[in-house]
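Journal club prep — side note

Before the paper discussion, L.F. wants everyone to see what a predicted structure for a comparable chain looks like in token form. Sequence:
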Amino acid sequence: MIKIKNIFSLKSCLILTSIFFISCSDEFTLLAPESQRNVDNFYQTKTDFETALNGVYDALQSGGAYGNQSDIATGGTGGYWMMTEMRSDNTDQGADVTGLAAAVAELNEFAETSLSEYTLGAWSGSYQGVARANTLITRIQSAKLDDAFKNQVVGEALFVRSLLYYNLGMLFGNIPMPLEEILETNPKQTQLTQTQVLTQLVTDLTDAAGKMSSTPTLTGRATKWSALTLLGRVQLHLGNKSEAASALNQVINSGGFSLLSKYADLWGPANENSNESIFEVQFVSGGKGEGSGFTNSFSPSADLQTGEGGGRNRPTIDMSRAYEAGDLRYKVSMDTLYVLDGDTTYQRHVKKYESNPFSNFDADNNFIVFRYADVLLMAAEALGAGTQAYSYINQVRKRAGLGDISSSTAGSFEDHLLQERRVELAFENHRWYDLLRFGTAVSTMNAQFAQQGFNITINENDLLFPIPQREIDLGLTQNPGY
């Protein structure tokens, strides 16, 4: 298969979207000089829509979404890892909490305001992708193309839009959710609750799964199974466990995915898009503007083989103690020792995204959004305590070199599941959403802060990020507590 690691470079010059909603004047959209293709005459051919779809996928690479390509000195625009892993008890901002790093530390300490550049970055980057998807979905309806092609393109765009809306809804809660192209300069914005957003995603992901192929046309593209995996996650958040099980069982029974025999074989540029992978955000290094910055951001050293190390997303002491003795995932996922030029120092750091970047913030590492182990653990959650659920959990544990657990093992089923998800999916942006879904975010984080000696206490009003002030000034209503 042909990989698509270099298809995302066609940016908004072709997609013609704003950072938030599309805001094009009539004068602009009606102009169509013969020498320049604009939004009014671009969406015509199959090639046009393939290019537009590449632009939709490209939004997932942005520093406000799954990417992190900005310079350490400026702090960058962050990414979902700052607002999920660092928000949870898995990681913190690192040793530096002064100067420019103070704004990063605020996210970890629940101290950000509506003026935070990082929350604005996530909001803007996500809505840019939404706008691109909406333009494509709207424009393709009247295009004279075969139905199979149109369905596949719409399905993929629906999946990417749903993935962006899932993150927006979980992070900000009460958000606008446009589902079609918007051309007004100042559109009226109606905010939906988190439950309303997730309910709409059930409709969209069901539609996407029905339209998309079960086999990717290009490696790295979303498939029916990508949509069903996210659908299962959304149904779990809504408390619809039987519906979640139905979606996830389709992925399991497809026979298209399996656990790799070694956990270590999941990580590194040489192991991307494996049989365990269901959807990855693709990155490629080489000075193309398409590389990832995880290696530089997470490495603890300022003297890497290539570029700088930021020491961000540092595992907490509690995270390092979460692994059972003999768990093979520990040394693959993180470490407490760092060796540079023969000198060993004690520095906790994430290892999953280590590589040798082409240049600073230009590495080949993809970001795995969904993989088969996650599906097994979500299926166990959907089923609830029982033989089949523990069978799924134990498949994951067996690869990690650990023995089986059961209902007779000390602790509740929910405790077992949260623990297994924490160590299996560490640093993959799942922990914060898991804590929210299980209703343990407040108690877990307050216990974490007490353990660290921080004078910080959170409550239910702290579970959503503040909507950026720019959007409040335009008429949106702020979340409680800000």
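L.F.'s comment for the group: Residues 1-36, 71-76 have pLDDT under 50 and may be disordered. Keep this in mind when we get to the figures.
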